[in-house]
Design brief:
Ferritin, mainly alpha, binds fe (ii) ion, 338 residues, globular, single chain
């Protein structure tokens, strides 16, 4: 056994390339509370009341229409696990305090549940594990599948951009986009829960809505921590990201804006036809005016948060909100969230 040279200085602890901090500092107490409730409120999508869900009482057209809504949701919720996993890695690289790392871990965990739920609903409704290779049984089902393929294609257009954005943006900037998604998501899922007629969907939307409410609280506490010391260039980046978030999330919360989403002319008409059939079968989806009012309210909530920190708000004329004109946003600029 060799003698250890105790006179030699140990290596320095300031190592920016170390992916993990050897530290468990707790500064943002609110985040510890949210993480504790995430542990308490954990749920298992496969343990919901599936045995009370008799899918055979629906026609194939109805099953395809309801599955389409879950497919639309999946375009957002199935991208959430890798999106938040990448943000989780960033919290380690940045040597964030322990509660921030833990909270991001919990969001990634929750989003996996949301994606799992989408998969269970689609697989049960279609009797097939994916909506893209499924063979539609009704005429409407065929058109809805074509819509799904367009959505899927659009979803392929932001991932490379996001991977490049992650190291460039501060967590504060990323959080403004995240908050937009969480506020909107919390609203729609609470509504879907109260309108649901199937127990399994009611349970799922209640759980998902609760999760999204926690995600919102996480974003809010990080903003309270970081926004008072925000850099000037970050402010304009946030304004742009809010407009981008509106364009992106409108596809599920409202209707996809044409010059941003690359979609065929009859896309919205087909989607509306699908929603009508789903609604008539008892699957609650807010109507056009309700969606618009919800979206407007969620955006105004976000505006009131950003106003406190003097961050200019973008114009969103589609829902009657005036502000700074932002143009030239591409799918590649998107920080995808839900
Ligand atoms: Fe979320
Ligand atoms: Fe989600």
């Amino acid at each position: 056994m060799t003698d250890i040279d105790t006179s030699q200085e140990p290596p320095p602890i300031e190592n920016p390339h170390n992916v993990f901090p050897l530290s468990w500092v707790q500064e943002t107490e609110k985040m510890e509370e949210v993480y504790a409730s995430a542990l308490r409120e954990n749920w298992d999508p496969s343990a919901l009341s599936w045995d009370e869900f008799d899918v055979t009482k629906y026609t194939w057209e109805e099953r395809e229409a309801i599955a389409y809504w879950w497919t639309l949701l999946s375009v957002f919720d199935a991208s959430a696990p890798p999106v938040f996993a990448a943000a989780l890695i960033k919290t380690y690289e940045d040597h964030e305090e322990a509660p921030v790392r833990r909270c991001f871990f919990s969001v990634t965990r929750d989003e996996q549940n949301h994606e799992h739920m989408c998969g269970l609903a689609i697989t049960t409704l279609l009797d097939h594990p994916d909506p893209l290779t499924y063979e539609p049984k009704s005429e409407l089902g065929k058109k809805l599948q074509r819509n799904a393929r367009w959505l899927y294609y659009n979803g392929s257009r932001y991932w490379d951009g996001y991977k490049q954005a992650i190291p460039k943006y501060s967590l504060a900037v990323l959080f403004s986009s995240f908050l937009m998604g969480e506020i909107a998501a919390a609203t729609i899922f609470h509504q879907m829960a109260s309108g649901a007629t199937e127990k399994v969907f009611q349970e799922a939307f209640t759980n998902i809505g609760r999760d999204e409410g926690r995600h919102m609280a996480i974003c809010m506490s990080l903003m309270q921590r970081d926004y008072p010391k925000l850099e000037v260039e970050d402010r304009s980046l946030i304004t742009k990201q809010i407009r981008a978030g509106y364009l992106f999330l409108s596809a599920v919360l409202f209707e996809p804006p044409e010059d941003f989403w690359d979609l065929p002319d009859d896309f919205i008409e087909v989607q509306r036809a699908g929603e009508t059939v789903a609604r008539e079968a008892g699957f609650f989806i807010p109507d056009y005016e309700t969606k618009k009012a919800n979206w407007r309210e969620a955006i105004l909530n976000l505006k009131s948060v950003l106003d406190v920190y003097d961050i200019p708000f973008p114009a969103i004329p589609e829902v009657g909100i005036s502000g700074e004109e932002i143009s030239d946003i591409e799918m590649e600029d998107i920080i995808p969230v839900f």
